[in-house]
Design brief:
Altered inheritance of mitochondria protein 32; 3 domains; single chain; five-stranded mixed sheet; Glutaredoxin; Thioredoxin-like_sf; Aim32/Apd1-like; alpha+beta
Amino acid sequence: MPPYVQHVVIRTGKGDWSSKIEDDMEVEGGVNFARGLKGLVGRGGRLNDPSRPILITNSNEPLPYDAQANQDKFHAVHLYPQNISVSNIPPTTEGHEQFAETFLASPEKRVRLSNASERDQEMSSETASQPEGKKGKHDSLPSVSQLSYPSILICGHNSRDTRCGILGPLLATEFKKHVSSPPPFRNPIPNTTRQDDEIKIDGKQQQQQDILRKEMEGSSRNQPRNQPSLASVALISHIGGHKFAGNVVIYFPKSWRGRGGSGESELAGKGVWYGRVEPRHVWGIVEETVRGGRVVEELCRGVHHGGEEGG
C-alpha cells in the first residue's frame, strides 16, 4: 500500500485508460482531470505538500446524469477517506484549481487561500463590471453528497497490466453478485407449521406476511429498485504497490455498521487494501470484511486509518 492522505477517484465511465492516466487523450469533454490535478498537487505543483501525498485514479463509474446532460461535461469524483461524492466540477483550469484548493490543499494552505479569497471579494465590484459571459473562478460551485455505503475499488487497468485487465472484470462481477445477495441464512425459524393463511409458532399465531418477512430478511437486496446493494463496486486505474493482479481497496464510511446494523463496524472510516485477490476469495471478503468488519490478514496489504478528515 503506497503512503497517502487522500484518494481521488475520478468518474470517467470508461473501462480502460492510457498506461499513465495523465497521458490519456480520450477524455470526455476533451479535458484530462487527472492531468490537471497531478499538475496542482503532484511533485512541483502549486498545492503540493510532500507530507500529504494525494492518490489520483480513474474509475469506470459513469458520470452523474446531470453531468452527462451538460454540454460542458463537468467532472465528478469520489473522495476518500472523506467518503464523499463531488460533482459539477468545471472542466477548466480554474475549475480544477477550485476543486484542489477546496478539497485537497493542506489546512494551512486552505487558510492562506481563504484569506486571499476574501481579498478577492473586496474587488467584487470590478468583477461585476466585467462583460457578460466572462465568468470568474468560483462562479460554478461543486455539489457534495455523502457516501453511505462501502466502496469496493478493483484495479482493472488493462493498458498498465494485462493481468489486471483480465482479472479485474472477473472480480467486479463476483463482488457485484455477492453484495447484491442476502447474507447466508443461519438462523431458521424453528417449530413452524403452516395453517391456511397463518403460521403457528409454539402456540402463537401471527399473520403469514409478518413471518415471511422475517424468513426472507435481506432477500430484497436481489431487487435493487427496492433495496440498495451492500456496497458499490467499480474498476479503477493502477493503484500501485501490487506484484500480482487483483488489488482491491475497500473504503468504509464512518457511519458504517456492518452486519445487522446493531453497532459500528470496527472498519468504519477506514480503507482496507487487499492483494492477490482471486474470484474464490470474494465471498469470504464480503462476509468477513464488508459484513463482519474483520480484516482477512493473509490478503491484507495495509489499512488506511482515515484520520480526522475521514467521513
